[in-house]
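name: query_chain
kind: protein
chains: 1
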Amino acid sequence: MNSVIFDMDGVIFDSERAVYNIWRELAEKYGFAEDLYEVYIKCIGVNSDSTRKIFTEHYGSSFPYDEYQKETSSMYRSRYDGGNLPLKPYVEELLQCIKSKGYKIAIASSTGTERVRMQIDEAGLSKYFDIIVGGDMVTRSKPAPDIFLEAADKLGAIPEETYVIEDSFNGIRAAYEGGFIPVMVPDMLPPDDEMRDKADFIFDSLKEVESIL
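structure:
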């Protein structure tokens, strides 16, 4: 066992709630707040194209997703760029532990690669990661396993010997489908029976992940 792949949003950064709160502000401003939480939850762990599809399938083809997404992105950057995005508890301590044991470490995030690199760099975490794979580097979004397989390939890692640390249902599904060792640290949604079946480990916090290394 010599490799660990991290998701980013909801695992490294406490960003899923931050994004949801911004979408909530926008939804109340423009009058589409009804069912927003249920729609947003479906978008966690997927790329921008899949998110657009989820929103327009729910709110209708005339829903101006691109316009709203641009506005939420602007709000997000004004609040959190420059190293202001909060880290999840114990993330740096876990990264230090993993690195000290000689593991290779990657990020596989549905967020675009350039933005992943920027956020990781601004948080001072770049030194921990050997490989960064963003959502724009693969064609299929989670729950397809492509992004994890791409990260494993770049690491020279064997999926069956590689931990994938995820918070989202789609991320766990992708790790399971790819033959990895899925480790769930839930963020906005508690695990259900499907997650308990597909995740090898479920922990309340990143601190507990150290116990399996």
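note: The beta strands are 3-6, 104-108, 131-133, 162-166, 181-184, 201-202.
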